[in-house]
């Protein structure tokens, strides 16, 4: 599996997002994904499926060291003591001694970022996580986080797909040696109707979603598509055997606008 290197972390380029996956079906899907060749699983406290994610990883028969596991701390646990306690609870649910990557799920202006990052550094020092990072941070918040974190941040996990222009966040990640990890990388399935992606895909005998994931990979972006269908698992990982040319990359970039965002909540920051 191809990896993206970021401030000491080696993050598998394609992972499985697990938002909305629950129960036995979640554990089975993760086991299947790992048997198919996935080596990166993304969960979060808020997804309420860390227990099943851990079950799926164990059922795969792989060594723990061979699977890159990310979880995210929910915003109500950003006070330092809460953060450490909730991270230990995540590990207990996962039945793991550490995660590979611990993220702040969304910005929380109610708790000073410096305090939260201090607790993240402590989680790292205590061996609860190998790496730390952020999610849904704007460029300004990223700059603040990088300046205030005593441990290198390895990524910013944000929504990114051909409909959403993320040039500013990409440039900021590159400047700080961080990876951009793309959630909703196939725009929650909407890319299947994109004429340009289907036309380009026909040249390579690939689907619109595969073209989209390849486009992200060629930007050195990590993609974590979520699916509940086993046949999609195979499709999403089958993107290592073709290469988009510059003209195709440019055509896909031209689909993006600032208004293409799908995931937006009342508590979201003012996006770039």
List the helices and strands and how they pair.
Blueprint: E1 3-6, E2 9-12, E3 16-17, H1 23-36, E4 40-42, H2 50-59, E5 68-73, H3 80-94, E6 99-104, H4 113-125, E7 129-135, H5 139-148, E8 153-159, H6 167-175, E9 179-183, H7 195-204, H8 208-217, E10 222-223, H9 230-237, H10 246-253
Give a nutshell description of this structure.
This protein is of the alpha/beta class and 272 residues long.
Describe the structure.
The chain is α/β, with parallel strands linked by helices and 272 residues long. The protein has one domain (3-187, 219-242): Alpha-Beta Barrel (TIM Barrel), CATH 3.20.20. It has helices spanning 23-36, 50-59, 80-94, 113-125, 139-148, 167-175, 195-204, 208-217, 230-237, 246-253, and strands at 3-6, 9-12, 16-17, 40-42, 68-73, 99-104, 129-135, 153-159, 179-183, 222-223. The strands form 2 sheets. Strands 3-4-5-6-7-8-9-10 form an 8-stranded parallel beta sheet. Helix 6 (167-175) links the parallel strand 8 (153-159) and strand 9 (179-183). Helix 1 runs parallel beside helix 9, helix 2 (50-59) packs parallel to helix 3 (80-94) and helix 3 packs across helix 4 (113-125). The protein starts with a strand and ends in a 19-residue tail after the last helix. The relative contact order is 0.14. The model has no long low-confidence stretch (mean pLDDT 97).
